[in-house]
């Protein structure tokens, strides 16, 4: 029958006689696919096919002569695992069968046994039992030949190496003159006698019909004749297989002398797939044969056409009948673990394959099994090592040889600044490393003007190398140290974004942590920013292998963070920084600031003088010394410092400009300051535009202080023409527009300095003033309230909040906002720095707000609008108007404590001590729960040198309002010399609460002297 493979469509032929009634499983010789083949019901049974019979037959005697088998069709060695690749070249024809003795197929000294089945008849039964191809001229084997001893000449000398997969395990023994069994290399394989493949590719003619054959084999267990070909192949009947499953145990040590033999050339049917894994039978010892060349064991490719008929290699489909009993010739010692499963298996090969094992008489099979097992282990180890080399090593090498990954894209923050800096630096020369080194040198100079140059150098370094995080760290460091508290909010946020981008690329390195901490310290009035800066400095000190210079910088950051809370801790950190880096120029400067925060002004001035003596060009130390002298009430000493610098360097603008600022900011001589500034502008050819713009800004402030609004506006606008976006110039134009009630112009210039003031609360106050001018009182009220939250010292913001509520006709809200002002310190309207770029006259933030509160009056008998209007006029400095409003209040309520107290304070400013004392006494009597009444009485008594009554009145005021700083300062002033330490402690406490409260600083300096 011609079969077409269902999987690969290869065509092959099966003898019809091999197909039983139940069908057979045929295996494709190309792809090894198994498929069920049934007999065509319309076809007649094959001639000469054995009829299955369940009747028992007499067992065949091994020595009985066998009937001559008919000539069968020439078939290839169907058991050849690689039969498709061709057959070996033809060999010499064997001698005639008549010339050989009947025992040719048996070993010497053994009974004659049945010949092995057809070559390769069992493909999957036992890999170790694969036969080797015989000569091409060997006669074909009839798969249904009579069972029994092999006829003379029925076989041919076997060819070792039939199984190419297992051929590498070693050569098979040499063949004796008669056909002998070859011991396959696989563990547990049984030696087989093979028939040579056909010489021709086409099948031979069918043999003539022969007489019917009788079963010549019987069951090895019960002796019942076996009629079914499958039972013959297994050597046992179906009943014995089902009755004795326990026979699967270990094989016996000895083999029976005369096992039943199979018919020569009977087909070795394929057992069920579950039986394939049961293992292979152990082989008995046999004499070694001379190995043949390995090449002779492999069939030549292409020797057999694919279309040649094949002997079927599968049996009919039957249910699993359990393991085969280990009897007869199969009960031989095991050669070791089967390579596939590692356990002793039971072979499914037929009994006729066991006959050659007994005939060989070999010994020492266990040693061969151990050798084979060792070879398998070595092969597995070699395969693993090869796999590791060819896969893991190759992958690692491929990774090493691969091209480097493309760099990640630049962060958006970096791209944003680069696009702007490219317009600023049109021509950038050199390399990024050169610009980086230049910036580091400028940073090391510790000069405020050098910091601006360092900013430019680091910007160019980043333009040349956008991935340089060192350039980002240097730029932010120069920005923070150079601009300090004057750094605007937009630049602050931009620098912070750059730091976060750099930290995401390079990690939290020492340089990045240091620059980030210094940046946060520019917001020293925000406690959360200062605390974060302290944590960053501590993180830097916890790093390993940090240079001493960076450790010193970290201690400087920690000292600056503790300046406002603990001067002792600040000094300790500054001392540590000086020990780590003695040449760090900023250490003496910050140490002087620590002395100043502790109220040790003499020590601070001494430290700065030493630094100036070592470096007269240290303009930061010179400016700090001048500022301290002005705050402690010694402006003449500050003037001497700059005059000395002018003598040393005539025409030096850094010394001439501070002298003019001293005129109008401290001495109050705005006209003289304007003259000096105009004199500097006559030599403007000697200065750069940036320097000229600074002179023009201070000229605008001086002219505005002198009441020349037009001249002030002209100077500020000229400064903006020279340097666009100068925040100080925008500020002066804004203040002029605010005084003129020009809301449009004020709104135009407000963004120019928004976020760039050194005082965030002051910015909210000015924005609220602008909103009031724009008739937006509700929004203005929100800004004033936010200013109070930012800085509780701003009494002007509280006043303006009441004015905004009054503008919105919200009477109750207005009085609710103004009442705390009445209970606050009347001698401190707002914090005022001694020296600033954004100059404001005293009380200028509340100028122009008069008359709004009076609109809330419900009649002439309503004293509250008059009282709060008088309070506003008092802080504006209009004492006459304030006195008038307070008198109006007293006409309605003659015992009003608040009105009497402020009238007493007005009398003190005018020098009428007796009137002030009388008004103060009346104020206390009319409002004993009003702290301002006790304060006014205490100040009047102190001015009249009544120390003890004054101290009692001041203590009463502090009991009602502990935040009255003026009362604390006056009490310290009244302390006798014996209690100087107590007075000093009080003043230091006041300075800690408000560093801009100048009366406390002046008294402290006097106590030290």
TrEMBL record:
The chain crosses the membrane at residues 370-391. TPR repeats lie at residues 585-618, 863-896. PROSITE patterns: TPR. The keyword Membrane applies. Keywords: Coiled coil, Membrane, TPR repeat, Transmembrane, Transmembrane helix. Residues 670-719 form a coiled coil. Residues 39-230, 243-364 are annotated as: Disordered. Residues 42-77, 100-119, 180-193, 248-264, 280-289 have a biased composition (Low complexity). Residues 87-99, 132-142, 194-210 have a biased composition (Pro residues). InterPro entries: TPR-like_helical_dom_sf (IPR011990), TPR_rpt (IPR019734), Znf/thioredoxin_put (IPR011723). Residues 344-359 have a biased composition (Polar residues). It comes from the Bacteria. Residues 1-33 form the Zinc finger/thioredoxin putative domain. This is Tetratricopeptide repeat protein. It comes from Pyxidicoccus fallax.
């Amino acid at each position: 029958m011609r079969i077409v493979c269902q999987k690969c469509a290869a065509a092959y032929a099966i003898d019809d006689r091999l197909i039983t009634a139940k069908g057979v499983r045929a295996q494709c010789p190309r792809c090894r696919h198994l498929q069920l083949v049934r007999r065509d019901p319309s076809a007649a049974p094959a001639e000469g096919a054995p009829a299955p019979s369940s009747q028992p037959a007499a067992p065949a005697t091994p020595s009985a002569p066998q009937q001559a088998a008919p000539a069968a069709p020439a078939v290839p060695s169907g058991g050849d695992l690689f039969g498709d690749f061709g057959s070996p070249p033809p060999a010499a024809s064997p001698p005639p069968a008549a010339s050989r003795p009947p025992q040719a197929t048996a070993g010497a000294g053994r009974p004659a046994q049945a010949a092995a089945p057809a070559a390769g008849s069992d493909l999957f039964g036992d890999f170790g039992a694969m036969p080797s191809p015989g000569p091409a001229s060997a006669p074909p084997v009839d798969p249904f030949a009579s069972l029994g001893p092999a006829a003379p000449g029925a076989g041919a000398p076997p060819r070792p190496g039939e199984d190419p997969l297992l051929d590498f395990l070693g050569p098979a023994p040499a063949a004796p003159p008669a056909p002998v069994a070859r011991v396959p290399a696989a563990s547990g394989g049984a030696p087989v006698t093979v028939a040579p493949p056909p010489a021709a590719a086409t099948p031979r003619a069918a043999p003539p019909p022969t007489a019917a054959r009788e079963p010549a084999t019987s069951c090895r267990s019960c002796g019942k004749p076996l009629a079914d070909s499958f039972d013959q192949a297994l050597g046992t009947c179906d009943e014995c297989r089902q009755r004795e499953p326990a026979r699967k145990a270990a094989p016996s040590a000895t083999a029976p002398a005369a096992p039943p033999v199979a018919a020569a050339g009977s087909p070795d049917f394929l057992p069920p797939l579950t039986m394939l894994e049961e293992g292979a039978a152990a082989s008995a010892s046999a004499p070694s044969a001379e190995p043949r060349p390995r090449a002779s064991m492999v069939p030549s490719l292409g020797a057999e056409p694919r279309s040649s008929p094949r002997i079927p290699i599968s049996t009919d489909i039957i249910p699993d009948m359990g393991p085969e009993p280990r009897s007869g010739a199969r009960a031989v010692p095991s050669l070791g673990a089967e390579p596939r499963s590692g356990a002793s298996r039971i072979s499914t090969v037929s009994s006729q394959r066991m006959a050659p094992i007994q005939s060989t008489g070999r010994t020492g099979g266990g040693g061969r099994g151990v050798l084979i097992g060792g070879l398998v282990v070595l092969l597995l180890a070699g395969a693993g090592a090869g796999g590791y080399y060819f896969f893991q090593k190759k992958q690692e090498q491929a990774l090493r040889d691969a091209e480097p990954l493309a760099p990640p894209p630049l962060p958006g923050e970096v791209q944003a600044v680069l696009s702007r800096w490219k317009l600023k630096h049109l021509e950038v020369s050199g390399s990024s490393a050169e610009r980086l080194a230049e910036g580091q040198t400028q940073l090391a100079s510790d000069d405020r003007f050098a910091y601006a140059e360092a900013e430019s150098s680091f910007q160019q370094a980043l333009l040349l190398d956008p991935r340089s995080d060192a350039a980002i760290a240097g730029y932010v460091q120069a920005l923070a140290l150079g601009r300090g508290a004057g750094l605007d909010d937009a630049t602050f946020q931009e620098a912070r974004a750059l730091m976060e981008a750099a930290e995401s690329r390079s990690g939290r390195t020492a340089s990045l942590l240091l620059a980030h901490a210094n940046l946060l310290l520019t917001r020293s009035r925000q406690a959360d920013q200062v605390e974060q800066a302290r944590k960053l400095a501590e993180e830097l000190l916890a790093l390993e292998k940090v240079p001493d210079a960076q450790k010193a910088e970290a201690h400087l950051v920690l000292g600056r963070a503790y300046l406002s809370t603990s001067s002792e801790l600040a000094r300790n950190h500054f001392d540590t920084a000086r020990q780590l880096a003695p040449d760090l120029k900023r250490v003496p400067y910050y140490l002087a600031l620590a002395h100043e925060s502790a109220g040790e002004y003499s020590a601070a001035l001494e430290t700065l003088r030493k630094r100036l003596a070592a470096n007269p060009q240290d303009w930061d130390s010179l400016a700090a010394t001048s500022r301290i002298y002005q705050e402690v009430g010694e402006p003449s000493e500050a003037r001497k410092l700059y005059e000395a610098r002018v003598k040393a360097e005539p025409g030096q603008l850094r010394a001439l400009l501070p002298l003019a600022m001293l005129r109008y900011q401290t001495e109050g001589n705005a006209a003289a300051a304007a003259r000096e500034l105009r004199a500097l502008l006559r030599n403007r050819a000697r200065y750069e535009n940036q320097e000229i713009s600074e002179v023009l800004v201070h000229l605008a402030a001086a002219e505005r202080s002198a009441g020349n609004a037009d001249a002030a506006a002209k100077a500020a606008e000229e400064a903006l023409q020279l340097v666009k976006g100068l925040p100080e110039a925008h500020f002066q134009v804004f203040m002029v527009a605010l005084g003129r009630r020009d809301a449009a112009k004020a709104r135009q210039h407000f963004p120019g300095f928004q976020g760039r003031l050194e005082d965030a609360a002051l910015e909210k106050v000015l924005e609220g003033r602008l909103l009031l001018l724009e008739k937006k009182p509700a929004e203005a009220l929100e800004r004033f309230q936010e200013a109070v939250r930012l800085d509780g010292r701003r009494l002007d913001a509280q006043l303006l909040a009441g004015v905004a509520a009054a503008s919105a006709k919200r009477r109750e809200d207005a009085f609710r906002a103004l009442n705390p002002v009445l209970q606050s310190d009347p001698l401190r309207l707002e914090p005022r720095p001694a020296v600033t770029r954004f100059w404001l006259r005293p009380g200028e933030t509340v100028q122009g707000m008069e008359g709004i509160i009076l609109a809330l009056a419900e009649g002439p008998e309503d004293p509250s609008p008059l009282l709060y209007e008088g309070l506003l006029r008092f802080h504006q400095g209009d004492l006459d108007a304030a006195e008038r409003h307070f008198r109006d209040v007293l006409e309605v309520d003659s015992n009003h404590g608040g009105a009497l107290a402020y009238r007493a304070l007005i009398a003190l400013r005018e020098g009428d001590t007796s009137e002030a004392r009388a008004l103060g006494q009346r104020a206390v009597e009319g409002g004993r729960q009003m702290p301002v009444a006790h304060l006014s009485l205490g100040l009047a008594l102190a001015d009249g040198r009544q120390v003890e009554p004054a101290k009692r009145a001041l203590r009463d005021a502090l009991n009602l309002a502990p935040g009255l700083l003026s009362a604390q300062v006056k009490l310290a002033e009244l302390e006798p010399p014996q209690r100087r330490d107590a007075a000093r402690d009080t003043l230091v406490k006041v300075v800690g609460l408000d560093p801009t409260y100048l009366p406390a600083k002046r008294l402290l300096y006097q106590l030290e002297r």
